[in-house]
Design goal:
- The chain has about 80 residues and is mostly helical.
- It has a domain of about 50 residues.
- Helix content is about 75%, strand content about 0%.
Amino acid sequence: MSALTPEQMEGLFRAIQLTREHEFDCSECQNHLGEFTEKQLAGLPTDEVLARVAHHLSLCPQCSEEFVALEKILRAND
């Protein structure tokens, strides 16, 4: 097993610091991603549930990619 690089350690510590008592998993995030994206594009405020989506997106590269893709689709349809 190899040691973590300083960058990997920093990323791990950052993720630990950002951890909340109740975290959304990817499935929960995906369930609310459409509503979250629409509100973001409209500049509307988000409630506590959608704030959890935003938090999950800040930690999860896969869900963040889904968000960006959905955002592009919705912008193209405006």
